[in-house]
């Protein structure tokens, strides 16, 4: 066979392979779409395992939980200690609780790890169910993971533009009653961070502020497009509705709500917490506004509402690493904020930073099994990056320009190695900081002050 003939044969084989692969891929996606529609083709929901009886335990205790970390060598499995104390929920949520912050950071990490159970079709441990059982929770609900964890589901999400969602876990813990008080139930919601095609939702912003929506009634709070980050707001609606439905069966109890999440999950948890506070005196009430305990980790900004950092939202704390570019986006200059208070972890140049960083790095390496991956001096790089965006892309409308989005990517690449820069964003980095800090070294930013 001559060379031209051989090339034609090779080309025909390649074309046939592409056709076969495309046909197989289309068939797989259509089959999965039917499964999603019919509610089949997924593993049964995990059941909470037998665990030490924590349901009525008073006073502090610690539970060791297992989870999966992409950074950990070998199997990727690690174990961390999670503190807990039911008495936290009889204390003022407006006072920062370092132990509750640690617990929320760990559970936000577990919310990501839970995906592997559904992705592996039950082959990996059900980390969320195991963790919550160890803390005394019951009625754990992880149904939202069923069609949001496998690669085929993520491809379908991108193709059908159904990426404005999030997987989340919800559970309850009925606390031992106190004399003369109503029975108390802690509702916990842990929201998974960015996963698969949900990344597309992270950049969905409204072009205009839509000032006319600023005076909405409480009944209109389900539809806030134009005021909030579109992708986060749409994902949060599902959780809000689920919470409202769940709380209708708890009208005879005093409900305390705990919300947590990392990155995208943190922003969604922040949004939910903010609107639970707003809904507290409406027919959609979940709990009293003074019963909201929210700790987010590495959350991007989520809302343009001018009162988002007001007194009503003081039970919401947002942990941010000064090295991490993600909590700086969308830009403060565009009018975006988080509900509640921003809390800065120790940063390069702060007094006492070196000793605190060594303690954090030691915990990280002991727990994860590799050296801590980020460089503290990158804080200066992040500041330059944000300053350049402020100058080039000063408004949300400017962000809608494809040219400016290209500038964003190019500027990021020219400032630093993105993989190195975003290492400060990892769940394991935040958890290691919080496991080695109390309140020393933290900076509680006043309302209206951007991260620096």
From TrEMBL:
Annotated transmembrane regions: none
A Pfam family it matches: Lipase_3
Domain Fungal lipase-type per the UniProt entry, residue ranges: 189-332
InterPro entries named among the record's database cross-references: AB_hydrolase_fold, Fungal_lipase-type, Sec_MonoDiacylglyc_Lipase
PANTHER family cross-referenced by the UniProt entry: ALPHA/BETA-HYDROLASES SUPERFAMILY PROTEIN, FUNGAL LIPASE-LIKE DOMAIN-CONTAINING PROTEIN
Name of this chain's protein: Fungal lipase-type domain-containing protein
Organism: Kribbibacterium absianum
């Amino acid at each position: 066979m001559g060379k031209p003939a051989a090339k034609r044969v090779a080309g025909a084989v390649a074309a046939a392979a592409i056709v076969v692969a495309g046909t197989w891929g289309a068939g797989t996606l259509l089959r999965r779409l039917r499964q999603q529609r019919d509610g089949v083709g997924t593993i049964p929901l995990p059941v909470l395992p037998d665990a030490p009886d924590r349901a009525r335990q008073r006073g502090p205790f610690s539970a060791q939980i297992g989870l999966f970390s992409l950074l950990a060598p070998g199997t990727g499995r690690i174990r961390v200690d999670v503190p807990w104390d039911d008495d936290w929920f009889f204390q003022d949520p407006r006072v920062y609780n370092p132990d509750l912050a640690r617990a929320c950071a760990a559970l936000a990490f577990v919310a990501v790890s839970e995906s592997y159970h559904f992705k592996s079709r039950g082959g990996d441990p059900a980390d969320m169910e195991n963790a919550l059982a160890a803390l005394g929770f019951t009625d754990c609900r992880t149904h939202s993971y069923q069609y949001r964890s496998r690669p085929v589901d993520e491809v379908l999400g991108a193709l059908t533009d159904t990426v404005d969602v999030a997987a989340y876990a919800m559970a309850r813990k009925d606390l031992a009653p106190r004399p003369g008080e109503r029975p108390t139930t802690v509702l916990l919601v842990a929201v998974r961070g960015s996963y698969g095609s949900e990344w597309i939702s992270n950049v969905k912003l409204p072009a205009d502020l839509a000032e006319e929506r600023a005076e909405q009634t409480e009944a209109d709070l389900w539809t806030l497009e134009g005021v909030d980050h579109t992708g986060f707001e749409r994902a949060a609606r599902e959780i809000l509705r689920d919470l409202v439905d769940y709380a209708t069966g708890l009208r005879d109890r005093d409900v305390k709500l705990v919300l947590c999440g990392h990155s995208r999950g943190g922003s969604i948890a922040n949004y939910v917490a903010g609107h639970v506070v707003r809904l507290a005196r409406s027919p959609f009430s979940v709990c009293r506004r003074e019963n909201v305990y929210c700790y987010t980790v590495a959350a991007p900004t989520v809302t343009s509402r001018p009162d988002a950092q007001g007194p009503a939202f003081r039970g919401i704390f947002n942990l941010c690493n000064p090295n991490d570019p993600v909590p700086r986006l969308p830009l403060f200059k565009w009018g975006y904020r988080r509900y509640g208070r921003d809390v800065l972890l120790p940063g390069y140049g702060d007094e006492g930073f070196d000793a605190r960083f060594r303690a954090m790095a030691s915990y990280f390496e002991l727990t994860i099994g590799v050296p801590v991956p980020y460089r503290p001096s990158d804080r200066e790089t992040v500041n330059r990056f944000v300053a350049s965006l402020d100058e080039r892309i000063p408004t949300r409308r400017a962000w809608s320009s494809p040219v400016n989005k290209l500038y964003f990517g190019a500027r990021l690449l020219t400032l630093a190695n993105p993989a190195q820069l975003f290492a400060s964003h990892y769940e394991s980095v935040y958890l290691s900081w919080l496991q080695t800090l109390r309140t020393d070294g933290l900076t509680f930013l006043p309302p209206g002050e951007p991260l620096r």
